[in-house]
Specification:
Layout lengths: L15 H9 L9 H25 L26 H28 L7 H26 L4 H26 L9 H24 L23 H4 L17 H28 L6 H23 L4 H25 L6
Helix pairs in contact: 2-3, 2-5, 2-10, 3-4, 4-5, 5-6, 5-10, 6-8, 6-10, 8-9, 9-10
Length: about 350
């Protein structure tokens, strides 16, 4: 001690793990790593599987191969004049892509358990992926054996959306450090995700019940007669009998029109909510994500109108499904960043 001044010397050595943790949770994020690259690639591949599934449904090729997992007992479509090769190949290509996606998912799960990447959230997402793979395998088989039973097909489609969502969350968590924080804005985003998920269910129900072309006009089902008697009882009767071939649909016209119009009403509610919420909260949200969500909403509305006016063109119909998935990923991204603590 000199001149009343003290020099404090810490007797505790610097904790390298603590320093690494601080560095890990810096604002700059963790950057791209092998897990983030692989999970991002898996997201893109999962989107292609969803698109191929939509294409298969639109081409009425869901029963192009009546057995599972083979096609008429073969790994590839056999040569036979009795087989509709176009539909069979559409179904088998979808299965090939889904099989490779399963391999990618298992690789992502394995990497998530490496000490370099391991954290609580990645463990939870990995367990979810294991469950979803088993879920999709079972429903993939039931889709064929139960001859496209609508509730099974809808569940199979939702499984695909859940898989791509979990893969996207793994990408975000491996790319950006995540420390949860309380943010009331995230509740509004979560409500938007729930509304979108219900809208996806309505869209899937519309597709599996072959109701996409039941209303030929826009904005009403029949512009000359805007109001008609809706058949809610038959339109949303989920538990149906086994042994029926549901390819082409079995519902009455009024039931299909009810389903179609409810899908439009759901789209209106979702669009109004997301536009209003993101506009009011725009100063508290990332501008890039907000503008992206607005763009996806406008594109989705445009594709929906084109599907009605031009009688469901293949490209726009498949795009309608893909954009729904991209909108879901956009809202998940927004939810992730509103729940993420930024460290200084």
């Amino acid at each position: 001690m000199r001149g009343g001044q003290y020099k404090t010397i810490s007797t505790y050595p610097r904790d390298p793990d603590l320093e690494n943790q601080k560095l890990k949770h810096s604002n700059r994020g963790m950057g791209f790593n092998f897990l983030s690259i692989l999970s991002l690639f898996a997201v893109g591949w999962a989107l292609s599987v969803i698109g191929l599934g939509a294409f298969t449904r639109l081409m009425d090729a869901g029963l192009g191969c009546p057995d599972w997992p083979l096609c008429y007992g073969h790994m590839i479509v056999p040569h036979s004049p009795m087989i509709d090769k176009y539909k069979a190949w559409a179904e088998m290509i979808h299965r090939y892509f889904a099989g490779f996606l399963s391999i990618l998912i298992m690789a992502v799960i394995a990497l998530s358990f490496f000490k370099k990447y391991r954290n609580r959230y990645l463990m939870i997402y990995s367990l979810c992926l294991i469950f979803l793979i088993l879920y999709q395998i079972i429903l993939g088989q039931l889709t064929v054996t139960l001859k496209l039973m609508p509730v099974i097909v809808v569940g199979h489609l939702l499984g695909g959306f859940l898989i791509v969502s979990v893969l996207w969350l793994i990408f975000l968590n491996s790319r950006f450090p995540f420390i949860p924080k309380r943010n009331p804005i995230s509740i509004g985003v979560l409500i938007g995700i729930i509304l979108l998920f219900f809208q996806i269910i309505l869209g899937a129900w519309t597709s599996t019940q072959y109701a996409a072309l039941s209303c030929p006009d826009f904005p009403f089902c029949f512009n000359a007669h805007p109001f008609f008697t809706m058949d809610f009882q038959n339109a949303f009767h989920f538990f149906v009998q086994k042994g029926v071939n549901y390819e082409g649909g079995i519902l009455s016209d009024s039931a299909r029109q009810t389903i179609h119009m409810m899908h439009r009403v759901g789209a209106l509610v979702l669009t109004l909510y997301l536009f209003l919420f993101t506009y009011l909260m725009r100063f508290h949200l990332k501008n890039a994500i907000v503008f992206w969500i607005w763009g996806m909403l406008i594109l989705q509305i445009f594709l929906g109108i084109v599907n009605v006016i031009f009688k469901l063109p293949i490209f726009t119909a498949v795009s309608h499904t893909i954009v729904a998935a991209l909108l879901l990923l956009s809202l998940l991204t927004l939810f992730f960043f509103t729940r993420r603590e930024r460290q200084s």
